[in-house]
Every structure is written in structure tokens, then in C-alpha cells.
Design brief:
heterodimer, A: 295 residues, mainly alpha, 72% helix, B: 280 residues, MetI-like fold, 12 helices
């Protein structure tokens, strides 16, 4: 039997492919079909009412959807960049510490253990205008009036970003720290002897070496960007006045609350393409960076 | 002089970052053990006057739960997460071994395809799954959720185990086989024990993903029969009021197993993620 496997090792991958076909591929084909129907959960027979591209046409005209779409992209860009920046900073900081590094590394991973729904709840608690930790803290410094972090139109998005960044910086810092610890010491010392300053060493030696690790972290992160739904869902639910509506919360609203499955599936196709594009982009970058350091 | 100032700034910065990372968790932990009126008090009460385990006894009371059947949710969570992890690890390990040890046509594109399947956002996937699962009677069953989690966890398990098998020199298996082992015996007696810790790490990673998942479970589970802890948590969230202490208590129940498991495997997890990626 094992001779057969060495000839066609695909047998070993087959169970994985079957599982993914049942849970991902078949449902996605089905949802592609429903996105061309007027399917509403409340009227089962509408599943067979074919409407062509009508859902997509309506989507193009739906400015609320495109606001949410644009907001999602901006949200991801800000979040990913800041997470990378903070992650890099923390990794560089911890890398310098020799005493108690293990403990610090463990603490650093702390947010990774939190379920996104828990992260959302915990920050909802902290940002609560009445009993929240943050307002209680500001109260100590004389800010008597409670700031409505999650209700104010201008502050809500920033509050959600804070939660998102708190939760996901860890994956960057932990992977970049692993990269930093693997950097060979010789080239750095040689560069120093040749008169490079710290910035030059960082830019020309450390950063190129870290590049694959940065892309590993970005790839892993991009697989899970949709989990931001959990955080937004519990913190604001898309409010106030749709100011924090991301593409994912909008899908949930249209699909489950309005029971308009056809439309929601059309939306979710846009979001799937968005996610896959993110992952694909970082994956190809990862492969390129891997080749650049000669592996 | 200058150097010691630098050092002090350095330590203050480190301390500040660690404080920010830890504070939310600590605050939740404290709040879980204080009565609700104290949480609501104004001005704030930074340290509990009274410590109480009221919320926990409420959750786990056997004689008819009062508010939230947390014990049932906990059982569901454990069953669903454990089963899906064991299946995902078995399937994923087979795949990871194939990617690490064999060359075949379309290897890279299959790997990429598996990863892209993982990238589909939970909420987008939940719409068709909800309809199909309802049609074939899998909605509100543990099995339905387990099936979904297996598929969600397999790509990542393959990524990790692939990396761990690569770390083991090919020669070891070859030597075992020239000594008369079959390929399977070589795998079972040589490669699997060596990759063991890594596979355990991959397993815990899969477990945590199932343990923490919300978007899919919130749609696929309906009642106490199959609801998991993250979904059960929402029971404390009413239209206008939130039982903060109760919610903090269930959060503590959720986080403790996650913390313990992550501490056990953190070293292997990091090496698995990076090695598999860099030398892939």
C-alpha cells in the first residue's frame, strides 16, 4: 500500500481536500448560485427565482456597501501597518533584553490566547462610557464628563482599531522576535567594524533578513482578517449610524437580520475576493522574500 | 551616566508595554470576582472590597441553572474542540507529510489552494453553510460544527506539520528503511516521535482556533444542545443591560485553558511557524 502512496502521494492529501470540498468549496459554489437569485430566508421558493446579475447591479449602486468596503480596506491598512510597526518595535525591544526574556516573551503572547469575541467584549468594557476603565482613569485626572468612546461618531472607529491592534500585534512581535534571534552575528559585527551606525546596520542587514518573517506574519494575519467581524460585532454592531460598519458586519446584517440571502451572498463574494487577494499577495511576497535570502 | 539613563528609559518602556498587554486581562479577572453593584459604582473602585465567587457558583450550579447554563456550554466546547482537533491533526499530518517528503505535480498550487480556502472569512462562509446545514439536518448539532472546524483547521495544520517534518533529515528515514523497516514503520518509529512536540503544538493551535471561534458557531448552533462558550457568552448581553460580572466570569472560564495550553507549546509553535515558512 505504501508503494502506491509513494507513486501518488496525493492519496495522503486527499482527506484534506475532501474535508475542504465539503465545507468550503461546495458551499461557495452554492452561494455563488444564490447570489444570482432573489433568495430570501423567509420565502424558501425564492431560491429558484433566477434574477441574473441583479444583486450585483444593485450592489454597484449601493453607496452604503461601497462605504463599508472602503472603510474595511482603510481599517485593514491602518491595522496591519500599525500592528507590524508595533510588533517590530516590541520585538527589537525584547531582543535587547537578556534577563527575563522568556517571561516577557510569554507575556507578549498573552493577547493571542484571547478569542476575538472576548477581545471585543473586554474593550467594550474598557471603553464603556459609564463604568469603563478608561473613563474611570480619566476621572482621576479631572475629566468629569464621561466620554462615549463607542457611541461618539468620531471615536468609535478608533476604539475598535485599538482593540484590533491590541489583539493582533502579538503575532507580529512573536514571529519577528524569532527572526531577530536567528540573525547571524558576524555580518553585523563586520558592518560595525566598517563604521556603519545602528540605523545603517538595521536598514541593510537586519531588515532584509527579517523580510521573510514579516511576510510570514502578514500571511498568517491575512488568513484571519475576517475575524475582525467578531470584535466589531460585539463592540458597536456597526453603529453609531453605520460609522463602524465593515463589509463583514454588513453581510451579517443583510443575510440574517434582513433575511436577504441572495444579496448577502453577492456581498460576501466581494469580501471573499478581498480576503483571497490579501492572502495571495502576501504569499507571493513570502515566496519572493524566501528566494532573496537564498533558501 | 548617559548609558544608565538610556537603560532606565528602556526598562520603563518595556514595563509600560507589558502593562498595556496585561491590563485588560487583569481587569476582567478582578471584575469576575466582584459583585455587580461594585463594578457600577462611581467613582471607580479600583480594588474589590468584597471578593465573591457568586457568578461562578451560578454558572456551575447543578440543580437547575439560574441564568446561563455555562456548564453545558463548557462541555459542548470541550467536545467540539477536542474532536475536531484530533480529526484535523490526523488529516493534516498526512497532508503535511506528503508536502514535506514527496514531490508531485501541482504541489505548490495545491498548497496555495488549501491556504486560500482558509482565507475565506467565516461570516461569508456561514451564509451558504447555514442554508445547506439546515437542509441536511446538521444545524444545531455538534457534528455539524465539528465538520466545519476540521476543514478550517486542516490547512494550518498542514502548514505547521510540513515545517516540522522538514526539520527532520530525510536520511533518518532512509537509514531505517535500509535496516528493513517499511516506509510506514520508519514514519511511525522514527519520524513521528521526532516531530511529536511540533505536532502537539499544531494540535493546540487547532484546538484554540476551535475553542475561540465565533462567526460560524453563532450561526450553526441554536440551543443549549450545541452552543459553545463564545456563543454562550452572549447570553449575558441583553438588549439594554449587560451582566458585566457574569460576562467577566465566563471570560475567565474561557481564557484559563487557553492560557495553560499556549504556555505549554509556545516554543514549538514559533519554530513551526517560522521554519515551515522560511525553508518551505
Amino acid at each position: 500500500m505504501f508503494r502506491k502512496i509513494s507513486r501518488s502521494p496525493i492519496i495522503l492529501i486527499l482527506p484534506a481536500i475532501i474535508a475542504i470540498s465539503i465545507v468550503v468549496i461546495v458551499p461557495l459554489i452554492f452561494s455563488l448560485y444564490t447570489s444570482f437569485t432573489a433568495y430570501k430566508l423567509t420565502r424558501p421558493d425564492s431560491l429558484y427565482k433566477f434574477v441574473g446579475f441583479r444583486n450585483y447591479e444593485r450592489l454597484l449602486d449601493n453607496y452604503k456597501f461601497w462605504y463599508a468596503f472602503g472603510r474595511t480596506i482603510i481599517f485593514l491598512m491602518i491595522a496591519l501597518n500599525l500592528e507590524l510597526l508595533f510588533g517590530l518595535g516590541i520585538a527589537l525591544l525584547i531582543n535587547k533584553i537578556t534577563w527575563g526574556q522568556r517571561t516577557l516573551r510569554t507575556i507578549m503572547m498573552f493577547p493571542m490566547m484571547f478569542s476575538p469575541i472576548l477581545v471585543g467584549f473586554q474593550w467594550k468594557y474598557i471603553f464603556n462610557d459609564n463604568i469603563g476603565l478608561l473613563n474611570n482613569f480619566l476621572y482621576l485626572f479631572g475629566y468629569q464628563s464621561a466620554i462615549a468612546w463607542l457611541i461618539d461618531k468620531k471615536l468609535a472607529m478608533g476604539s475598535i482599531l485599538a482593540a484590533e491592534i491590541w489583539a493582533n500585534t502579538a503575532i507580529f512581535s512573536i514571529l519577528l522576535l524569532a527572526g531577530l534571534m536567528g540573525i547571524p552575528k558576524d555580518p553585523i559585527e563586520a558592518a560595525r567594524v566598517d563604521g556603519c551606525n545602528s540605523w545603517q546596520v538595521f536598514k541593510n542587514i537586519t531588515l532584509p533578513f527579517l523580510m521573510p518573517f514579516i511576510f510570514i506574519a502578514l500571511t498568517i494575519r491575512s488568513l484571519d482578517v475576517g475575524r475582525a467581524y467578531d470584535i466589531v460585532h460585539i463592540m458597536t454592531g456597526g453603529g453609531p449610524a453605520m460609522r463602524t460598519e465593515l463589509i463583514w458586519t454588513m453581510i451579517a446584517r443583510v443575510g440574517y437580520k434582513d433575511a436577504n440571502m441572495g444579496m448577502a451572498n453577492a456581498m460576501s463574494y466581494v469580501s471573499i475576493i478581498l480576503s483571497i487577494a490579501f492572502t495571495y499577495y502576501f504569499f507571493t511576497k513570502l515566496i519572493a522574500a524566501r528566494q532573496a535570502i537564498g533558501n | 551616566m548617559n548609558k544608565s539613563i538610556k537603560k532606565i528609559i528602556f526598562w520603563i518602556l518595556t514595563f509600560f508595554i507589558m502593562f498595556i498587554i496585561c491590563l485588560p486581562g487583569i481587569w476582567i479577572f478582578i471584575s469576575a470576582f466582584r459583585p455587580n453593584p461594585e463594578i457600577l459604582s462611581k467613582p471607580a473602585n479600583w480594588w474589590p472590597d468584597v471578593w465573591t465567587i457568586y457568578q461562578f457558583t451560578q454558572m456551575f450550579s447543578i440543580k437547575g441553572y439560574v441564568s446561563v447554563p455555562a456548564f453545558q456550554y463548557l462541555t459542548n466546547s470541550i467536545i467540539i474542540s477536542l474532536t475536531s482537533t484530533v480529526i484535523a491533526i490526523t488529516i493534516g499530518m498526512m497532508g503535511g507529510y506528503a508536502f514535506a517528503r514527496f514531490n508531485f505535480k501541482g504541489k505548490n498550487s495545491i498548497f496555495l489552494g488549501l491556504m486560500l480556502a482558509r482565507a475565506v472569512p467565516g461570516i461569508s462562509l456561514s451564509l451558504p453553510l447555514f442554508i445547506i446545514w439546515a437542509k441536511i439536518g446538521l444545524i444545531n448539532t455538534s457534528f455539524g460544527v465539528i465538520l466545519v472546524y476540521v476543514a478550517m483547521n486542516v490547512p494550518f495544520t498542514i502548514w505547521l506539520t510540513d515545517g516540522f517534518f522538514r526539520q527532520i533529515p530525510k536520511e533518518m528515514s532512509e537509514v531505517a528503511r535500509t535496516d528493513g523497516c517499511t516506509r510506514f514503520q520508519a514514519f511511525w518509529n522514527v519520524e513521528l516521535p521526532l516531530a511529536g512536540p511540533g505536532i502537539a503544538a499544531a494540535g493546540i493551535f487547532a484546538f484554540l482556533l476551535s475553542w475561540n471561534e465565533y462567526a460560524l458557531a453563532s450561526v450553526l448552533t441554536r440551543t443549549i444542545q450545541s452552543k459553545t462558550l463564545p456563543i454562550g457568552m452572549m447570553d449575558y448581553l441583553n438588549e439594554f443591560t449587560i451582566n458585566w460580572a457574569g460576562m467577566c466570569a465566563i471570560a475567565v472560564v474561557m481564557i484559563i485553558p487557553a492560557v495553560i495550553l499556549t504556555f505549554i507549546v509556545q516554543k514549538h509553535l514559533v519554530s513551526g511557524l517560522t521554519f515551515g515558512g522560511v525553508k518551505g
